[in-house]
Structure formats: C-alpha cells, structure tokens
Amino acid sequence: MLQSMTVREALRDGMAEEMKRDETVFLMGEEVAEYNGAYKVSQGLLDQFGAKRVIDTPITEAGFAGLGVGAAFGGLRPIVEFMTFNFSMQAIDQIINSAAKTLYMSGGQMGCPIVFRGPNGAASRVGAQHSHCFASWYAHCPGLKVISPYTAGDAKALLKAAIRDPNPVIFLENELLYGVAFDDVSMDVDDIAPIGKALVRREGKDVTITAFSIMVGKALQAAELLAEEGIEAEVIDLRTLRPLDRDTILSSVAKTNRIVSVEESWPFAGIGSEIAALMMEEGFDYLDAPCVRVTGADIPLPYAANLEALALPQVPDIVEAVKRVCYRG
Amino acid sequence: MTEVLSKHAVTESQEVELAHPISSKEALKAYHDMLLIRRFEERAAQLYGMGYIAGFCHLYIGQEAIAVGLQTLLKPQDTIITAYRDHGHMLCSGMDPKEVMAELTGREAGCSKGKGGSMHMFSREKNFYGGHGIVGAQVPIGTGLAFAHKYKEDKGVCLTSMGDGAANQGQVYEAYNMAALWKLPVVYVIENNGYSMGTSLRRGVAGPNLYGRGQGWGIPGEKVDGMSLLDVIAAGKRAIDHARSGKGPYILEMDTYRYRGHSMSDPATYRSKEEVEEVKLTRDPIDLFKGYMTTTLQITESQIKAIDDAIKPIVLEAVEFAKTSPEPDPSELYTDVLTEEV
Ligand SMILES: Cc1ncc(C[n+]2csc(CCOP(=O)(O)OP(=O)(O)O)c2C)c(N)n1
Ligand SMILES: [Mg+2]
C-alpha cells in the first residue's frame, strides 16, 4: 500500500527502517543529531536511536568522510550526511581515492559499504558556492554508485537500497524537493528499489526526455504543454546515474527516434554529454535528429533572481528543445 | 614551551624506566622481523633496478624498529594503517613475503592481485588496512577504524602511522579533534624520519615538535627514540594502554631516519653522505638491538647467525616467486570495481 509523504519524511523513514534492521548502520554529519538535521531530514532519529548511532560531527568534511571510510572498512555501515554536496569538495579526495578505489587496489579485499548523502544542486538564491550539482563529477568514477531520486517513494526505496549496498553510494538529494509530497511511498520495510534502473514516468511516442531529480518534474510539466500541441513526450526518470540504465534509454529512443536530455548542471562533460555519447555509439541508427542537451548555463550560478532563473533550465527551455529535435515550431 | 607541554601530559620518554623488558624469545622474533624487512627491501631495490618492480617504491630501511616494536604489542583484533612506505608494516604483521613481493612485481599472486602495487597493499586477515598513496588520508581512515572498534566494543586499538610531512595535512587535525572528542582508541604514530621527500623538517615544519601538536585537543604525546626497539616498545605500551583503556588518542613521535632516498628515483642530494653514514654507524636499529641481545640478554652470536641464515632463503624464495608468478589474467581488468551483491 502506497502512502503520501514528503521527500524529507521518506528519507528519514528510510534511514530509520534500515537502522532498525541493522545495528551497524549509523548516521553521522554536521547538525544531524541534536538539531535534527540542517534541513530536518534526520528529525527524531537521535531520540529514536541515541547518540551512539546519530552523531553530530564538527565542521570537518575531509575528516568525517575519511572517518566514515575507515568505519566502513572496519565493518560498519555509515551514512555520512553532507549538509550540502557543495561541501563534499572538501572531502572529495576521501570519496574518490579512498572509498571508490580501495576495493580494486586491494584485489577485492577492502569493501566499503558507505552512503554519502545530502542535498545537491541549486536551492534558491544561495549563489554559486551553494548551488552546485555534482552528478557528473561522481558519476564519472568507477567504484561508486550514484543515485539521484525525484519522488518520495524513490527517495526512500533507493536510500534503503543504498544503505544495504556493499559499495560506496553517492545519494544526491534536492533541497527544493524535501518539502514536496508524493503519494508513492511504500510502507513495507522490505521494499527497496533497484539501483541502476531508470523509470519511464510518462509514456510517449514522439520524443524521449531524460532527466533526474528536480528536473524530472520540469520535464513532466513540459510534456503536458507539448501534449497540447500534439507532441507526445516520453519522460525517463534516470534515478541512477552510475550505473546508467542504457537499455531503458535506448529502447525508448528506438521508439521515439528523438531525444532531449535535461540536467541543471553545466554542459561540459555533463550527464547530457554522456547521453549524447551513448546516442553516437549505440543509438545512432535510431535517431531522426541530433540529440539536444538542456543544461544549466556555463557560468557560476548568479544570485540575482532574474539571472538565476535564466541560468537554470526552465520548462520553456525543455519545450523549445523538444520542438527543435522534432523540427517543429 | 616544554613546560606548558608537560602540564598537558606531554613527556619526553628518554628518562622513563623501561616498563616492558623483552624476553629472549620475543627479542629473537623482533630481531628476525627487523632483519626480514631489511633483507626483503634490499632485494626489492635490486628487483627495481632490474626492472621487475616499477613506479613508486618507498623503502622502510632504517625505520624497522618502529613497525616491529609496535607490532609486538598488538592484540588479534587491533588494526594498523599507514601510508605508502608500507612494506615493513606488512611483513611484520605476518603477511606472506612471497605475496608482498609478488605485489611489488605486479603479479596475480600478489596480495592485491597485482592491482595495487607497492603503495596499495592490504590484508584483512592480518588487520592491515593499507597502504595509502594520498599523504595524510590514512589518518582520518585510521580514526574511523578506531571508531569501529569503539562502536563494536571489541576493545581494539588502531595504530595509525604517518610521516613528518603528512603531519602538515589539515585532515590530520580534523581527525585529532574527533578522536579526542569521542575518545577513540587510536594511537597516532608519527614516523619522523627528518624528511618529507626533499624537504627537511626545518624547511617544512613550524613549531618545536610534532608530538606536542595534539596539545590543543588535550591529546598526550611523547617523543620516542624510534631507532631503539626497546624505547618504541615501552612508549608504545603506554600509548596503547591509554587508548585501550578508553582514555582516547595518543601521539607518538618517533625520531627515526630513512637510509634510502624517498623513493627509488630519489638520489637524495638534499642531505650529505656523512649525515647518512653517521646514522648508520651510531643509530642503526638492528645493530643497536643486536648489541642489547648479546650483552643484556646473553643471546649468542650463533643464535643470531641462525636467524640471519634463516632469512636468506625466505627472501630468495619471495624473489623467485615474484619473478616467476604470472601476471594477472586480462579477465581481471574489470573485476573488483564493485562488490557484487550476495
Ligand atoms: C596529498 C598528497 N600530496 C603529495 C603527495 C606526494 N608525496 C608523496 S610522499 C611525500 C612526502 C611525505 O613525507 P612524509 O610524510 O614525511 O613521509 P615519508 O615519505 O618520510 O615516510 C609527498 C609530498 C602525495 N602522495 N599525496
Ligand atoms: Mg618523512
């Protein structure tokens, strides 16, 4: 039975269920315990699980990311919260060089079951240093899995899957979605969503739109507008960026023969570039038009309201891109 | 400055009575392990020259007393982690010299299946957690291993080694803070060999010492003669007891010296030959301990020679194994990237 709740509540419930299920799971990060999370995602977890398992850290990202990696090597299953992924740059060495590579370098001995999670991408009017989307950065790296859910149901079911996964998982949330409710949340504690599987959120025959996280909502809105003009768009929620579900994308394009990729981060070497490469390498014969990328502007995100809106992909941008690949209007 | 430090339980260990004298049996084992490291690495250097070993290869020669001395104090659940100068730590943790040498030559039978190389070796079985190539990164990781000891209540301690150069990394102090805050059972071992690549201590480290750098967090620290196996053991015991009893982290600054260049490609022109010879002549950890064994423990020359003789075939066998063992199968290229679901 599915229930309605916000993404924030779904994430909290997902963590709580996994912490109940497995003693070795613990949550660590800045303000996660007594303050209940900078964005209240860990609301109530300290009360429920105590200070041994819900741990406020100092402001020390490299330090606690590394400590988490060591704890994972030592047999625990840490959930490390970054207040936002912007600050994960302080810790990116530990994430890539220690968490992602050590299994390989040890010939398979040093598994690292850890989840790094927190809000990613643009929030609202917080400027360039607090608005960065790291999807393509982390998706670039073998040894990691990278998830970026849209709905509350996926947020919960994929976070649970991430916690149970024996590998380091980057779990990219979105601050603007935290307060949004979705009615797709499973209350079955054993329901987990498969990592590495995209989901067709809307079926359509004329064009494929890929998106993830908050951009799925924009893509769906664009699809509604396009339908009014007689273009039926198929919207794919990528959900996982590494491993990317190539099959779902390719089989959609085999049907629609056109594709637009949407992401809020920068164009250069972005997720859209990867999708364009996939089209060249494996989807070329399906295409009736070159693929088009809708991305954030290639600039540090500005603060001014009008400039910020111009810099981030908006519904009309997606509509326009779709018309381009459909050679319409 | 020293006075302030002593108020914070920071002491120099020289005058402290040896609290943990060593039995003859333990002495012979420790001597064996130190000599094994030295002979093993001398051979590794040869293999490097012959082209069997490539890339970066950092020798531990000169620093043997530290890894070996501390190893004598560990319990089965204790963990060790260090940087890339790791062969010594691995050998004395009981890893098979054949597998270590085969990793150096990048062979399938290496302890990382040939995928890690000199700087990245691990043994879960021996609780050796690497082998890390990023200077300083092992310090928060070791602190996390200590966190896991405390979380699991297994009474274990993690020995986290770093160099004098690594002690300048910011994340070391992030780790100190958390370890002190949460009273984690970790002993930070700063192997101060006087140089960070070509940068001498004087040119790279401000302040009077490294053992006192935990002072701000109330972490006790000691300076130890890292060339003296007995001093290492005595100070190591104090530190490990402190950490194991729940009092939190402890810092040991080991005064030591590396005889060889930073890595195989370093001609070490930043120091004089005389400086190196002086240390070899007056402070060599193996010679010093040999002297102690014969004079104080009454161990005979022939007993010592028996050990020398025993080590030779072990090392030769490792060399032969590492030279002849096959390279990893190409099918291994894409394995071990992710842990497969069970
Ligand atoms: C983050 C990082 N910066 C630089 C290097 C290159 N590097 C490798 S070893 C080293 C010197 C470290 O010296 P120290 O910590 O004293 O250890 P020692 O080599 O003396 O054992 C440097 C600069 C590195 N591996 N990682
Ligand atoms: Mg050094």
CATH superfamily of chain B: Thiamin diphosphate (ThDP)-binding fold, Pyr/PP domains
- The helix/strand series of chain A, from N terminus to C terminus, equals EHEHEHEHHEHEHEEEEHEEHEHEHH
Order of helices and strands of chain B: HEHHEHHEHEHEEEHEHEHHH
Major interchain interface with per-chain residue totals = A-B, 42 and 49 residues
Content of β-strand of chain B: 5-15%
Largest sheet of chain B: 7 strands, parallel
Q: Helical content of chain B, roughly?
A: 40-55%
As for the number of domains of chain B, it is 1
Residue runs with pLDDT of under 50 for 5 or more positions of chain A: none
Low-confidence stretches of chain B: 1-10, 12-20
Strand line-up across the major sheet of chain B: 1-8-9-5-4-2-3
Query: What does the overall shape of chain B look like?
Result: globular
Amino- and carboxy-terminal Cα gap of chain A: 44 Å
Q: Hetero groups bound? A: thiamine diphosphate, magnesium ion
Count of strand segments of chain B? 9
Q: What structural class should be given to the helix and strand makeup of chain B?
A: alpha/beta
How would you describe the overall organization of this protein?
The complex is a heterodimer of chains A (329) and B (342). Chain A has helices at residues 7-21, 45-49, 61-73, 92-100, 102-105, 135-139, 152-164, 214-228, 246-256, 271-283, 305-311, 315-325, and strands spanning 2-6, 25-29, 54-56, 77-81, 115-119, 145-147, 169-173, 181-186, 199-202, 207-211, 233-237, 240-242, 259-262, 292-294. Chain A has a seven-stranded mixed sheet with strand order 3-2-4-5-7-6-12, with helices on both faces. In chain A, helix 1 (7-21) runs parallel beside helix 7, helix 3 (61-73) packs parallel to helix 4 and helix 9 (246-256) packs across helix 10 (271-283). Chain A has 329 residues and is an alpha/beta fold. In chain A, 37% of the residues lie in helices and 19% in strands. The mean pLDDT of chain A is 97. Chain B contains twelve helices and nine strands. The longest helix of chain B has 26 residues, at 24-49. The N and C termini of chain B lie far apart (57 Å). The chains are: A alpha/beta (329), B alpha/beta (342). At the A-B interface, helix 3, helix 4 and helix 5 of A face strand 3, helix 6 and helix 7 of B. Bound molecules: thiamine diphosphate (TPP) and magnesium ion. Residues 85, 133-135, 163-166, 193, 195-197, 262 of chain B line the site of thiamine diphosphate.
